[in-house]
Amino acid sequence: MEVLEKNSEEVIVSEDAVIRRAEKSLVVLQDELAEKNWLEVWYALCKSELCALPVVRRMSSNAQDKLKNIIGEAKRILALEKEHLNPSLAASIQRALSEIAKTF
Questions:
Q1: Least packed by Cβ within 10 Å: which of 8, 20, 22, 79?
Q2: Coil, strand, or helix at residue 6?
Q3: Cβ-Cβ contacts under 8 Å for 61 (sequence gap 6 or more)
Q4: What is the pLDDT of residues 46-94, one digit of tens each?
Q5: Structural domain tally of the chain?
Q6: Which residue range forms the structural domain that includes residue 52?
């Protein structure tokens, strides 16, 4: 990650570094989804760079296409697995998927 400025209170990184990190997190999201590790899926969708919609909009077209495919797959799997998940977790993941899908 490119650190532009660092002091004792905060670290400022370049926008390009954040976008690269978001694109790399797609691999993690895809792997966690394949394993049905729903807490990690939630984290990737709700607490990582992927939940920052301006970042998603600036990702490369290939990364955006990959994210679209992952979202579609996640929605499909979530519909099948929803009854076995904590309702709050399932609802949170579903909201995040819907919000990210609006960027496309």
A1: 8
A2: strand
A3: none
A4: 888 888 888 899 999 999 999 999 999 999 999 999 999 999 999 999 9
A5: 1
A6: 3-101
